[in-house]
Amino acid sequence: MSGRGTRNGGIALALQGGGAHGAFAWGVLDRLLEEGLPVGRVCGVSSGAILGAMLVQGMVRGGRDGARDAMRRFWRRVGEAHALNPLANNPVERWLWGRDRSNNLAWQGLETALRLFGPAQLNPFGHNPLRAVIADLLDRDALAHPSALPLTVAATDVQSGSAALFSNAAITVDVLLASACLPFVFPAVEIGGRAYWDGGYSGNPPLRPLLAPPPPREIVLVRAQPLHRPGVPTTQSEILNRLNEIACNSVLEAELAALPASVRVTCYDADATLGSLPISSKLSAETDFLLELFAAGRAVAANGGLAATAD
After folding, report:
1. Residue 167 CB coordination number (10 Å)
2. Cα separation, 182 vs 24, whole angstroms
3. How buried is residue 84: exposed, middle or buried, by Cβ count under 10 Å (0-12/13-18/19+)?
4. CB atoms inside a 10 Å sphere around CB 83
5. Cα dihedral sign for 126, 127, 133, 135?
């Protein structure tokens, strides 16, 4: 990492969201921080926003090692919370289909219900299992500390369709839940009289907050969604999933194309790891699966990522 980020306050991190697939991004960041990545500012959506919050508050408490520990604690808690998930494959189903839940009766029932009912009927009280985990781990004092790295969390304003940006002191449990709010599963999160959905719909993640003057020398983009996916989807859920991936990535690709020529972009790609995984795996937060994605992310980071543009 020698020589990287020595100008303009360090490297800017752009962190995509992708549900449980965010554990891949965790692995990438863990390896980069271990190697001494000089982070200057962070922007994220959905699971990337939560990772960013853990990273920033961990840096305040204990530097890079503190950031790695904070991210590890979050994903460990996610795995523990998932242990009682009724959608998880039982041992026989795991033997037959591995991570794919397409044949799981509980998953099939959920897919049917999602086609027939909205979140107001399926989840009228807005229950989100992440709320308790985030509420227990989020350290707002650390995020607002003068030494904290600039952090931006993005959510999508339902009425305007534009990205709503929240910075350090404004980041709450509700802001992080809004940034990760899947509109087919959870009611929109209301903050200050406005309703918000997943930030990926308006930028996954938006790059504009990372360009505040002076612009960084380098943006490190950590993907948690595949840009390319082999084959053509045929089922309704697979088609919807691919449409979401295309929509979320297209906004980002447009922003990447419009970056100043002086800004280098290094991308840590998720295609090889995530491109063949079914949509159901985004909700598969089993500890061993998360650790597999974590290891894959570390391996990709060890290989140096992909330099998209250069000075």
Report:
1. 15
2. 20
3. exposed
4. 10
5. positive
By DSSP bridging, strand 306-309 and strand 151-157 are unpaired
The burial of 219, by beta-carbon neighbours within 10 Å (0-12 exposed, 13-18 middle, 19 or more buried), is given as buried
pLDDT digits (tens, 9 = 90+) for 195-227: 999 999 999 999 999 998 889 999 999 999 888
Give the single-character DSSP code of 128: -
Percent helix, strand, coil in the chain, to 5, is 50, 15, 35
Helix or strand holding residue 59 (H, E): helix 47-82
Say which range, 29-33, 67-71, 123-127, 148-152, has the weakest mean pLDDT.
Answer: 123-127
The tokens describing 199, both together, are 């930030």
Strand partners, 189: 196
Cα–Cα distance for residue pair 167/191, rounded to 1 Å: 14
Tell me the β-bridge partners of 14.
Answer: 43, 221
Helix axes 105-116, 236-257, angle to 10 degrees: 70
The C-alpha atoms of residue 284 and residue 280 are separated, in whole angstroms, by 7
**Single-letter residue type at 190:** E
C-alpha to C-alpha distance for 42 and 148, rounded to whole angstroms: 11
| pLDDT score of 104 | 60
> Bridge partners of 191?
194
